[in-house]
Each structure stands twice: as structure tokens, then as C-alpha cells.
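Sample A.
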Amino acid sequence: MKALVYHGPGRRSWEDVPDPAVKSPDDAVVRVDCVTICGTDLHILAGDVATAEPGRVLGHEAVGTVEEVGSNVRTIAPGDRVLVSCISACGRCRYCREARYGQCLGGGGWVLGHRIDGTQAERVRVPFADTSVYRLPADVSDEDAVLLADILPTSYEVGVLAAGVRPGDTVVVVGAGPVGLAAILTARLFSPAHVIAVDPAPGRRQAAAAVGADVLLDPDDDVPARVRDLTDGLGADVAVEAVGIPATFESCVELVRPGGHVANVGVHGSPATLHLETAWIRDLTITTGLVDTATTPTLLRMLAAGQLGVTGLVTHRFGLDEMQDAYDVFAHPADTGVLKVALFRGA
């Protein structure tokens, strides 16, 4: 089969690799019908993720059709259309029993496209299939469903829920890429007074408005002053960092009020400074995290009921064999205007 293979920093190829097979009684082999590319894949290609070894098939988000299951698999069967989650869960370890699947100790967590071969391929082996894939309703499209593999639960859990967004809050989302847009979309579920989107790209600010941001700012604006103007001089209740660079993290710490919450969602490849000389007295809460995907069933029900407006998050579509072209587009958003790409089998 064909797959996108990582060959070290800056090097990738679409090449022939062996077909996956069931190795464990808990495995499933899924034919990939729709797949996407994540900013984390770009971090791997940049050399920021040392645990991803050369030779690895990348990708951790997909929708597909089950082709084969191991003898222990009970909840899916060949022919089922499923969502492949970015997180695999053994279901037995301490963290899985606490629904913290991202920290799985039993061979799960973020393994697809990281420690084992991933979804940017014609087929993928999924470990712990009963707890790591989700059957899809017929009325949910592949393109919409694939957004629930990572960016929607990540933004919802690591951003909105971790920060405790409440009705009437002022929420600042720094970075209006796919993850930031998903944070805006899911923050709106809690009726905040304002959702402020900060991004240098006019197209992304407009996309933020389309999913619920009511204040749009360029980083070159006096963002702290604008936030104070909206909050009686206090600062935001919540700031969601959705970029993954030191400057945006430090900006989020500056933007929240005393007693406020910074939820770091971005993947960082270099150190960021926490200015405790000024922050120690402000009673701040700062959270980080890897998604657990515990909310995926809830988000899937909402999507099926038409309560999540994900239309517009996918801006570019390709055939699966156009993977290299899709990467080139996704890696240069300032030039291409891309938000999220989707690649389809047989397109």
C-alpha cells in the first residue's frame, strides 16, 4: 500500500509500505476513506518530536471502513464505518480508568503516527479498537467526522473545559488556525459574553467570526488595551493559546485578569518564559495537556444533531495520492489560505 513516511527532519515521501495486519486480539485494520493533516505532523517534520522515529507513517486522524478485527474486538465489525481517534486507550490502566486516555500506560495514548504507523496511508492498524474507534451515523459525512478525530476534542477538552469557560466570561483565543477556530466554536457552547480572536491573517480572523468570535484583533493592535476595555480594566477570564510559540504563550499570561485561566493548547517546540516575577501575585491558573478524547462521543452526538457548525473548517480537498501536494498547501497557510485539508480515497 501507499503511505506518507517520515524520513527525518524536513524529509517525507509517499511510498510503498507493507500492508498492516492484526497483531493483537484487540486490533482492527481500517481502510482509510478520509484523512487529514495536523499541525503536530508539521512539528514532527520540523524535528520537534524526538520520539517520532524516521520510517514512521505519519497521521493520527481518519475516517474509514473496518476490514479486519482481532478475536477480542466486540463493538465493531468488518464493513463498519468508523472514526479513528487520535488517542488509543487500553481501557485498563490507572489513567484510562480515570478517563485520561491521553496518558494511557498500557500501550495507548498518542501512538498513531508517533510511536506506531499512522493514518496517512491506504490502511491503518488501530490498537485497542473497542476503545479507540467510533461507529459513525450514516448522516454524518466523512469530512465533518474527521474533525472529531483530534482538533474538536482537543480544543474542547484542553482549551474550553480545562479553562472552565462559563456564561458571561470573556474568552481570548490567540491563534485562529484549525485548533483555535475549534476552541471558538466550542467556547460558544457556554454562552460567554465575548470571544476575542487574535490572529495576524485577515482570512483567519474572518473564519473566526464565522464560527462565533465577536471581536477580531490583529496582534499588531494594542490587544491588552482592547481586552481591558471590554472587561472594565480587569482582563480576560480565559485565554486559550492555540499557536505553540513563546510569544503567544506569554501574551496569554498577560491578557488574563487576576484569578484568570490560561489554557495552553498549542504544541511547543521551544521553551517559553513564565514571568513569575510579575505573575506570582495574580492567582493565575495555567493548564497544559494532551487530549483524552473522553468527549468524542458527546461531540459526535452534537455533530449528528446539527449542533456543531463545522462547515468551513475544511478549505482544501485532495485525493489520497495527492498527499505531498496537500502537505505543501497545509504547510504554507499565509500563501494558500488553508485552514484544514481533507484527503479522500478514490478522489
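Sample B.
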Amino acid sequence: MKILSTKNLKSYNSFSLNENADLILEAESTQDLVYIWSCEEYSRYKKLPLGRGSNTLFCGGFSGIVVLNRLFGKQVNELESSYLIKVSSGEDWPSFVEWCVDNNYYGVENLAMIPGCVGSSPIQNIGAYGVELKDLCDSVEYLDLTTLKIKKLNNDQCLFGYRDSIFKQQLKDKVIITAVTLRLTKKWEPLLSYGPLASLNKSGVTVKEVYEKICNIRNTKLPDPKVLGNAGSFFKNPIISNEHYRDLVIEYPNIPAYPFGNKKKIAAGWLIDNAGLKGFEINGAGVHKEQALVLVNNGNATSADVLELANYVKNKIFEMYKIELEHEVRFYSGTKETFLSELFNERAF
């Protein structure tokens, strides 16, 4: 375990917002985590586990201890038709996907360049280009913060949903994910049905080509957080009824929608773009000029600027389409997680 000399969180959140915590610690093992959560010295503090800070918005300072996840390591178990790859939760997700492609482990390439650490992936049930973590996850290990024992859930027990899981619901704030095990099949079938991937030749394409195509798309459309502070996709793609969709098509015939059970999933980026909000700014915070789903720190934004911008976008979308956007980014204020609807005392989701 390391106690950092700084209390400033700017380097530990991808929005690069200049906020502070009471204390910042680095946990390098599960034993470190057990010590931090059982130590009397830290018992009076609220504690926030943090990976890469890539899906986090600090709405002011954090009144407690931020615990940086630095659990690293990978283990591969080869089976007859698949590989079981156990990955420590502090590993960088984009680097892990690249490692899989380089070592001929197939199935994760569609999830290339999603920012964050491996431990965050099951919480959000990350997904892109037709693949979600639930499609690959075998099991998740976690530290129970009540018993301080390591426990494990299989795929079904994780209760994965769209950008959702048991870790955002029943187990929220009660556990810390320590490792994720993926089951990757040896028989690879490329999934090329989404967007620009459809231009690839399914019969001859390689895993490397799919991976590089997705990396190129993301590099072109999405700003690098090291250059322009952002948390990636800020809002979830909303799910609406078929009746609501049919009403919208009358006024907006080009609105993109995808089947989602007996409902429709709408592209949030299109809604924001069609509302004319690309490039819209409030002080130092703005809607990205190329990808409307991304809100950015143009260099001098405060957390208040980002929140005001997000709330403006949310209200504009509701005004135009009667669709309530839900933010994918997780907000922390004081000692707890919060939401735009709470901060602005408006319509609840």
C-alpha cells in the first residue's frame, strides 16, 4: 500500500477536473484492500475505490479516501474449446484487449479502446459494436466489504443488463471487484453487423483487422482524454417503447433505432447532434465537435460547468423528443454517488 503525498484528483480522473480528496491511497493487493477497510485509522472516512477514473465525474471535492486500484496480473487456463483468462481488476482494459489480440485470444476485439480498468467492465457491463462483457464473462471475484472475504459470482449471478449489473444494484458500495475471468472461444466468429464494421469481408477478415478498424474509428471520432479531458460516452443510449418510436419517426424519419427486446434503443449521439448541440459550450465545458455523445473539458472547466452542460443537454433532448437521457458517467458529490436529477432537483429517471 502507498499513501500518496498529493490530495489532488486531477491526475486520477479523465475529465482532468481540479478536485481534492481527504487522502489518496494505492492498493497493490487484496491484502492492502482488507487492511484499508479494516484499519481503525481509516474507519471514520468514506472510501471510494477508483480504477482509471475514466467513467467518473467528481462534482466537487470527495470527502473521504480515494483508493486507487493497482491490482495487476493475468492467468490463462487452456481448455479444449476455449481459454479461461483471469485478469486482476486494476489492469488497463484497452491494454488487456491489445494483449489478447497480440496473443491470439479472440472475442474481445470489438471492445477495443474502451477506457477504464478491467474491474470496471462488469459493473457497467461495457459494450460496443454488438458485444457486451456479459457475452464473454465467466465469473467475477470480489472482496465483500462486510466480511472482508473473497467471493465469486458466475455470469448468471452477475445479473447483467444494459450498462447494468448486480454491482450497480444489490451489491453497490458493498464490494470491490478484484478479478474478472473471461471465457474466450477458440472458434472465432467475427461480429461485423454494427456501423463501419459491415464494410469488412466476413469470410476473410482477421481478428487483427477488426481490432485495428475499431481503433481507427475510435481514434477518429473520440478525443484522447490525455489531450482533451473527457469520460467517453457521457449518456446511455435510451430505450423507448415502439409506440414512442413510431411517433418520433413521423417528425424525424432518419432517427436511428435498434431492436431491444420489445422496445427500441435510440442512438443518444444522434439525438444530441440533431438538436444542434455539437460544439455547444458552457464556460470551459463543451459538447465535442465530432462526437456529440462526448462532453469535454476544453482546458479550464470546473465540475459545475460540466454539470450545467450535462443538465442543459438532458433538458434539451427531453424538450425535443420527450426522451429522458440517463448519464453513463458516475457522479460523486461529497461522500456519495449522485445523479443529475438529484443535483438539479428535476425529473427522476
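B remarks: The radius of gyration is 20 Å. The longest strand covers residues 56-69.
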